[in-house]
Design goal:
With about 55 residues, the chain is mainly α. The N and C termini lie far apart (about 85 Å).
């Protein structure tokens, strides 16, 4: 009997954590996008670069 109660309590705690996380994610959906600096590699010519050595 005790094990059933403990399992029920744990299941309720997990469900509560899931619902809380979901609600927080949905509330934060309207946040403004933040710009993140990104460095991109320069594109090479499709035919390849001609080098003279």
């Amino acid at each position: 009997m005790t094990q059933i109660i403990l399992n029920s309590v744990i299941a309720i705690l997990i469900a509560t954590a899931f619902v809380t996380t979901t609600a927080a994610a949905l509330r934060g959906e309207n946040r403004a996008m933040q710009k993140v600096p990104v460095r991109a590699k320069a594109r090479r010519h499709p035919m390849g670069e001609k080098t003279t050595k």
